Amino acid sequence: MNVVIIGCGVVGAAIAYQLSQVKGLKITVCDRQAPAQASTGAALGVLMGAISQKIKGKAWQMRQTSIQRYETLIPELEALTGRKIPFNRQGILSLGLEEENLAAWEKLVEVRHSQGWHLEIWDTAKLKNICPQVDHETITGAVYSPQDRQLDPTALTLALVEAAQQNGVTFKFGVAVLDAQTSPPESSPQFCVQLETTEGKIAADWFVVAAGLGSTPLTAKLNQIIDIRPVLGQALQMRVEHPLGNPDFQPAITGNDVHIVPVGGGDYWVGATVEFPNNGDEIPPNQELLESVREQAIAFCPELATATILRTWSGLRPRPEGRPAPVIGKLPGFNNVLLATGHYRNGVLLAPATAYAIREMIIPQGIGNGE
Prior knowledge:
The protein is of the alpha+beta class and 371 residues long. The protein has a domain at 1-88 and 149-227 and 321-371: FAD/NAD(P)-binding domain, CATH 3.50.50. The protein has helices spanning 10-19, 39-42, 57-81, 102-114, 124-130, 153-166, 215-220, 287-300, 347-362; strands at 2-6, 26-31, 46-47, 87-88, 92-95, 120-123, 141-145, 149-151, 170-173, 177-182, 192-197, 200-203, 206-209, 228-239, 252-255, 258-262, 267-271, 308-320, 327-330, 337-341. The radius of gyration is 21 Å and the shape is elongated. The model is unreliable at 366-371 (pLDDT under 50). This is Glycine/D-amino acid oxidase. One of its GO terms (cellular component) is cytoplasm.
């Protein structure tokens, strides 16, 4: 059985690796760019599972599945490829526990406990003792999630590609989809017969659209537009002379939607902005917004005021219009076109669960989502 995956960000690569473990599938992945170039390359890789406010239904289930899978996936990929994937196992610390939010956090701690997850509420004294880099004048408390993680999305994607290649997956980079040939319109449901690409025609039994923002023009060729709009995110890499606080305890710190992510030595990723297009799809990066993110990070950890900015970068995140993210399932009207797209700000977090879901649609009697 032939499967073609369009898109090789973290989601497409995770699907390719997951499917490569199924006997009898011939898998091809196409991307018009090199892997991890679009939103994946811009992501900070903060995996907010237990600390997220999602407590039930599919949104929580997918988070839980992914966080659990990462614990085995990272060592598995490192062993297969010999690549090092930076994976911070020191948890996530969420700052800014306002008095009015305390009850909500206490409720979340209880819910997570009943689900088998651990969260801790820290008062100012505990926060000062464990994370002296945090400004204790302004932060009244924090919630610590020891089981949440952060990883390097680009390193992860490249390892997924290499492991999938070892399992026989074919990758075609620099190949764009020009058109799609479908069964006659009167057949219902329709199916996609083949794709016309810059490298010729590709036929398959299944087509998986994991192309982020590229999914909209692609589905338009099948006359079933899935409307996905760009949201820009900017981030910075900053360097201080030495690690902030305790060098042996460097969790990802988040507050007010700003992440401070330790990436080794005294280097930190700080981000990210959330910038919507004004009109059309053009979003020029707004310097003032990036500066306000930097200022917010300094308000949390004042030592960052002395940091040097090594680089700034930005990327577009794919946000589905008028429907919740992500979009996973059959393309309406088609029997053999699957969507795994529009993950907005949770592509890295939800990639493993998305890969399970797609595998389940192609091989229903395969491993369920509970692995």
